[in-house]
Design a protein that fits this description.
Layout lengths: L3 H4 L11 H4 L13 H9 L5 H22 L1 H10 L16 H17 L3 H6 L1 H19 L5 H29 L5 H13 L1 H12 L9 H9 L3 H9 L5 H6 L3 H19 L26 H23 L2 H7 L4 H12 L4 H9 L5 H19 L5 H28 L6 H53 L8 H5 L1
Length: 489
């Protein structure tokens, strides 16, 4: 148990402004000391009104632009090959002029951004890092759009990846701390539904632009530049977002945390139409954490579990998402037609998270992850054995739904497993291994595609998904509807 100095407790007088948010003036809890546990308890008892969902949607808009930049890779790849900047396969396993090198450059940046920079949100706050990492990767993408060599293309894609990696960690951490416990699953489903709406957008734009060169500029460059317009929305989004009250309280900035909570409670109370339910007894909150805190029970087993999971889940998710047009071409489909089919498959991207809006908090996160990994295995192996257009599209939709339902589930899951003091750092560490894995997965899939065709690619993916099912099914704790602080203890 942390002492009052560690948890930042103050006297009732110093936290008097909290009284209005903690319940009626006669509520005995109103006289309780203000500390990080009290702030979390006040947040978790809030009903999910319009103001709560507005915060989720605003963060989800940031995720939309992030996924646009992250997932356009597969859709612009045929254009990069057509322009002569890259080749479809590589002359050596780690050749630097193939599509695989472009994918690897992105994931190298993502690895650095998540493993080396994940601590930034724990140090400087969720709100500031959310803003500046988005501006970082937007600027890098604009410069990348005007590169004329494979080296320049890969370098600026690497730098964009660093910013995207930081943003990925920050948004997940931010959402988990801003919403009450009863809607955490649906909040992540909303984030992913809005975010994955970027997939059909980028697929359709690629279908329209990549085969052509409007105004003399290669179509793939237009796709990249259109995504960069996300920076225009950054300042608008950030003005309406408060800092995480959980983070503020954990940092000892209790008066600021109290102001954020009092304002949010007033809005929710007005929309709720009656007095808010009283907070539950507060759970103790750990003081500021460090890297070594991830390696003590119970976090050590969770860190190992999510590291193994992230190494292998990437094979299934990006092994298909980044190679859809190329895999279709290998199945005998033309470049233009493959982009059309890819656009149809991409329409399913936000449907998985939309389904999650209805089911995310009804099932254990770990059970959903295991089930979706099984669906990816089944659809992938069948996809590799057919050339029928309608069946290819249907199986592609099945793969996309399985991947995206698994995605919102594990993003919520890994953010729940660690305490506020190390949440961004720990999520960044375990998630970074999916980025590290993807660096080599790109080259391995390119080599497998060259030697064994589409069947070989999906056998490789199936093996990875089997490991995902085993590690989460055996090692994963339950988290549905449980307070973050209770999961931590």
């Amino acid at each position: 148990m942390a002492n009052p100095e560690q948890t930042g407790s103050v006297t009732p007088a110093a936290g008097a402004s909290a009284h209005a948010g903690a319940g009626h003036a006669s509520d005995p809890r109103a006289a309780a000391p203000l500390d990080a546990g009290t702030i979390s308890a006040r947040l978790d008892r809030l009903p999910a009104t319009r103001s709560i969902w507005k915060l989720v949607v605003l963060l989800s808009l940031g995720f939309f632009f992030e996924l646009y930049d992250l997932l356009y890779t597969g859709y612009v790849a045929p254009g990069l090959v057509k322009s002569g900047l890259l080749t479809a396969t590589t002359h050596g396993l780690f050749g630097s002029t193939g599509v695989a090198s472009f994918i690897a450059a992105l994931f190298s940046g993502l690895f650095i951004g998540t493993i080396a920079c994940g601590f930034l949100a724990d140090r400087f706050g969720r709100r500031a890092v959310f803003t500046y990492s988005l501006l970082w990767y937007t600027a890098a993408n604009v410069i990348m759009a005007f590169q004329e060599t494979a080296t320049g293309l890969n370098f600026w894609r690497f730098l964009a990846g660093v910013g995207i990696g930081v943003e990925l960690v920050t948004i997940g951490t931010y959402i988990s701390e801003l919403v009450p416990k009863q809607i955490r699953g649906r909040a992540f489903a909303c984030e992913q539904a809005v975010g994955f709406a970027a997939v059909p957008v980028v697929a359709f734009l690629s279908y329209l632009l990549v085969p052509h060169a409007p105004f003399g500029l290669d179509g793939w460059r237009w796709v990249v530049l259109i995504g960069a317009h996300g920076a225009l929305f950054v300042w608008w989004i950030r003005r309406a977002l408060p800092e995480s009250p959980r983070w503020l309280a954990q940092q000892g900035r209790l008066e600021e945390a109290d102001r954020v909570m009092t304002d949010l409670e007033a809005k929710v109370r007005s929309e709720y139409g009656r007095e808010l339910p009283p907070p539950a007894p507060p759970m103790p909150v750990a003081p500021r954490g460090s890297f070594r805190d991830m390696w003590v029970p119970p976090y050590r087993s969770r860190t190992l579990m999510m590291t193994i999971f992230n190494v292998f889940q990437t094979v299934g998710f990006y092994g298909f998402a980044n190679w859809v047009p190329t895999l279709l071409i290998k199945q005998g489909i033309t470049v233009t037609t493959s982009l059309a089919y890819s656009s149809i498959i991409a329409l399913a991207a936000p449907i998985g998270p939309i389904i999650g809006l209805f089911i995310a908090d009804k099932f254990e996160r770990k059970s959903v992850i295991v089930a979706m990994a099984g669906l990816i295995i089944a659809c992938g192996l069948w996809f590799s054995q057919t050339t029928a257009a309608i069946l290819l599209v249907c199986l592609g939709v099945g793969l996309t739904l399985g991947s995206n339902i698994m995605s919102y589930s594990f993003h919520a899951y890994q953010a729940e497993l660690f305490p506020t003091s190390i949440r961004a750092r720990a999520v960044g560490f375990v998630y970074s291994w999916s980025r590290f894995s993807a660096i080599f997965t790109a080259f391995l899939i390119a080599a497998t595609l060259k030697e064994f065709g589409t069947t070989g690619v999906f056998v490789f993916i199936a093996g990875a998904m089997l490991i995902v099912m085993l590690v989460i099914g055996v090692m994963g704790p339950r988290t549905k509807g449980i307070e973050l602080e209770k999961i931590s203890h």
